[in-house]
Amino acid sequence: MDGLTLSLVCFAGMLFLIAIRTPIGVALGVVSFLGFWELKNFNVAIGQMREVPYYFAANWDLSAIPMFLLMGSIVYVSGIATSLFKAARLWLSALPGGLAVAANIASAGFAAGCGSSVAAAAAMGRLAIPEMLKAGYEKGLATGVVASAGTIAALIPPSILMVLYGIFAETSIVDLLIAGIIPGLLTAGVYTAMILIRCKINPELAPRIHEEKSAEEIRRERWQSLGEIWPLFILVFGIIGGLYGGVVTPTEAGAAGSALALAIAVAQRRMTWAKLWEAVRDAILTTSQIFFVGMGALMFTRLLSFTGASNMLAQLIAPLGLDPVMVIIAISVIYLILGMFLDPIGIMLITMPVFIPLLKAMNLDLVWFGVLVVKFIEIGMLTPPLGFNVFVVKGVVGNEIPLVTIFRGVGWFLLCDLVVVILMVSFPQLSLFLPTLMN
To answer: pLDDT: is 322 or 391 the higher one?
Structure first.
């Protein structure tokens, strides 16, 4: 069997295994093992099974992942999300769709101290959705804003996806983390603008909240609420400032962020041994899942390299190389399709060995492309039939709200994402300004 045929058979086999609910890491590993067996021999396949997991897990840069995950878990269990939404609600509830705007802004802020889209959606779902429904908000808007705003965590540092992309693309992780700040804030801003415009045109989507308290009491509560969220600002500026100033590497930033989050939680008396164990356990479980997929993806990457499939695909798309915009459009369509069916991390690890050589040959900026890839993966977390964040929100609301209602509410935010993508492609400096300034 020639290399191209074997690559196609392996890719089809991988998709089949994923379609029958085989874990992505297992699907990648099994297909890669059989591929090496067919391409070389049984001993080579066994050698890859023995070598790749160690090679992947021993990568020092990957130690940033469990550290950032631990930091996010500590932030989550210590109740910072509750304080953040409370402050956003008090300050923004007077706006059209104020609670939805508050949920959006709070999710963006929580993302900066969490790094996990799923955790952000789950936390804000428990806090914001019941309050919006109680206030009479349209169910699609209430659930859609939480599911969509949670994806901002993939862009705003710390971002696990940025770290993984930087390792596989051999690109500066610091530049990637910093590059995601403006697109992440832009996404939150466009979401906010859409909510305000929709609720201004159709006030029935989000009835105004009439406070029974006096203006003096509201003003006092607002300023008091800001006093409860200072830990998040210290954490965010500590991480971003450390990275931007070159004081810490991404790996050190994760460890320093975890230590700082723990110190803040202890100082506020929000941390107990039970909560600490819960945070450590969640970080370990999530790290194990990511590493398992990563090991399988690295084996698949090596198989594609041995078969020459990456180079063949690059040659296949080469005619589009005269027009980089066409190449980006083609790659974008592929990511959007894969995002409908595959796990976000799996998408990235599967596609990197195919697209990175092509982009290097075209001399396209890999930092800009990395932010664009993460944005497309964000969109994939919202698109049917397997929008991860939508199902997280569905798990929070239970049977009270149909799944189709949540997907319908998310549709407006997908239109906003389309606007953001067009801006990112048209103006690459949105992603590259801060890394350029830093360097």
So the answer is: 391
